[in-house]
Specification:
Largest sheet: none
Number of strands: 0
Radius of gyration: 23 Å
Structural class: mainly alpha
Helix content: over 70%
Strand content: under 5%
Number of helices: 22
Shape: globular
């Protein structure tokens, strides 16, 4: 029991650190998106950037992100080894991965035009498609070195987490946002309102891409310094593939990368269809960031501290405790994501108007982004639950199962996208519903396969508190929407102060109702987690 309390405190403590760092990074990232939206709206520069960023962003999320395959593989292996073995192992992995990604960088530069055609074939049929395509090709060439940086950043994330350093990895993504904001700020000082005119579109695209690249470089350098100071390896070339642990890392990293890559291929499928819908790519990016900001914070709080625990409980004799930790991850995912999704559905329009509607971003564009946010909100729980289950398979040394599940869901993604766009004619929201459908399918398949792998999961017992929280979330969403409608009839809909007040009151009403219902459910994992976080932050503030 004493050991259990110690682990709970440790998880809550790490979650607090990760939450604070990720919160800062995500808020700055949201400010960056606000700056881009104010500067370019949903015009050609913003649209081009989304297509150009598909591959660099895919690599940065896939390889360089917290909870990505590189991070997961490094943590899973280093958590079981002595610190003395870490530096040679990390430097060897860095060298091997860097060499492969250098080749990929060269390919991105040489075949940028072909890749943009592959990502967005529909641009050739749109009125401004030629301008979007030309800017996107140039942006992709500028951002191509992010292929190497993504791998190095991901390895650094895992290495620092394995050394129990969580603050810097959580906060380091903000460097990319800061450099973009600075770059666009300098451009605005030089050009003023002229930066949105067609003659400066190419320059604006170059500054946007260059700021993104500069941020990735800065993020890697800062991590590398911290990594070296912790004695976990520096910038040194090692080609010793027989180094202990290299094979173990590669065994997890290879299938995990392909599996996670399958999820990003789903993103490419979405953009493939989006290229036939004007401004859809930029709108998807704006809506997705509103979802990813809270989702990234909460997923890091849950997944980062739990992944080493999953790895330490991988032995069959510890599977009873592993199942308890899996339940903890799933229940906390439902507790955070279900009410958040409900509030996003209920309050989508005022959220988008408050965040984005200024500068070049107009009211009709708010309506488009809000429709996408409603669709995203419906699938937030399964997005995070899927990630919890995938990390359990990684901890068990099984990257093949998530890969097979992802492979099947690529096919499902294409089928759903075709149905929603070409048959049901749902437009851009249909693209988001496709993603939600794929995530739901993945979660069910992974749960069933994990149930078989570790000799049974008490799915019925786990489903009851999730069902209760689902009902609570629906009631919270209805209450929030009703509060919003009443306040809008009373005060109107225009003006930032009024919108902020309405959004705050409606959100608090919804959260209050959900909190009361969740308290009545008396779910142990929720009570312990909330109690630990309260103790940590209240003690710090006193």
């Amino acid at each position: 029991m004493t050991q259990e309390k110690k682990v709970s405190r440790s998880i809550a403590g790490i979650a607090g650190i990760v939450a604070a760092g990720t919160l800062i990074s995500k808020v700055v990232g949201l400010v960056r998106q606000q700056v881009i939206a104010a500067a370019f709206g949903l015009g050609v520069v913003a649209d081009a950037y989304q297509y150009a960023y598909v591959i660099p962003g895919f690599l940065l999320i896939l390889l360089g992100g917290i909870n990505g395959p590189f991070h997961s593989a490094i943590v899973s292996v280093l958590a079981k080894r002595n610190k003395e073995e870490a530096a040679p192992l990390v430097e060897t992995i860095t060298t091997l991965v860097g060499a492969v990604l250098l080749v990929l960088t060269i390919i991105l530069v040489l075949f940028s035009g072909n890749l943009i055609d592959l990502v967005a074939p529909g641009l050739n049929q749109l009125p401004q498609g030629g301008a979007v395509k030309a800017i996107a090709i140039q942006q992709l060439q500028i951002m191509a070195p992010m292929a190497i940086l993504a791998g190095l950043i991901g390895i650094g994330f895992g290495t620092l987490n394995a050394a129990n350093l969580f603050w810097l990895p959580s906060i380091s993504p903000l460097f990319s946002s800061i450099t973009v904001i600075i770059g666009l700020g300098i451009l605005w000082l030089q050009l003023g309102s002229k930066m949105t005119t067609p003659e400066y579109a190419v320059l604006g695209g170059m500054v946007l891409a260059g700021g993104t690249l500069a941020g990735a470089i800065l993020q890697w350098v800062v991590q590398l310094i911290a990594q070296a100071q912790a004695g976990m390896g520096g910038f040194r070339l090692r080609f010793n593939i027989n180094q202990p642990g290299v094979g173990e890392v590669m065994k997890i990293m290879g299938p995990a990368t392909i599996s996670s890559g399958m999820l990003q291929i789903n993103l490419w499928v979405i953009l493939f269809f989006a290229s036939n819908i004007p401004s859809a790519a930029a709108a998807l990016a704006n809506a997705n960031l509103l979802v990813q900001t809270p989702l990234g914070i909460i997923s890091s709080m849950i997944l980062v501290p739990l992944l080493p625990v999953f790895s330490r409980l991988a032995d069959p004799k510890d599977w009873h405790d592993l199942k308890l930790r899996i339940r903890q991850g799933i229940i906390l995912s439902a507790f955070t994501m279900l009410p958040l999704g409900a509030l996003m559905i209920a309050l989508a329009v005022p959220i988008v108007r408050v965040i984005y509607e200024r500068g070049a971003f107009q009211k009709d564009e708010s309506q488009l982004v809000a429709s996408l946010l409603i669709a995203y909100g419906s699938g937030m729980f399964v997005y995070l639950a899927r990630d919890v289950l995938v990390r359990v398979f990684y901890a068990l040394g099984d990257g093949d199962t998530p890969f097979r599940v992802s492979s099947f869901n690529i096919f499902l993604n294409v089928v759903l996208a075709y149905i929603f766009i070409n048959i049901l004619k749902l437009g851009a929201p249909g693209l988001v519903l496709t993603t939600v459908g794929v995530n739901f399918s993945s979660t069910l398949m992974l749960f069933f396969l994990l149930h078989r792998k570790i000799h049974g999961l008490p799915w019925l017992e786990w489903s009851l508190p999730i069902l209760g929280m689902t009902v609570g979330s629906v009631l919270a969403g209805v209450a929030s929407y009703g509060t919003l409608e009443f306040s809008q009839r009373l005060l109107g809909k225009d003006g930032l102060p009024i919108q902020l007040l309405q959004l705050s009151v409606a959100g608090l009403v919804g959260l209050g109702i959900f909190g009361a219902i969740a308290a009545c459910l008396k779910i142990p994992e929720v009570n312990v987690f909330v109690s630990r976080l309260q103790q940590r932050f209240l003690n710090r503030s006193l």
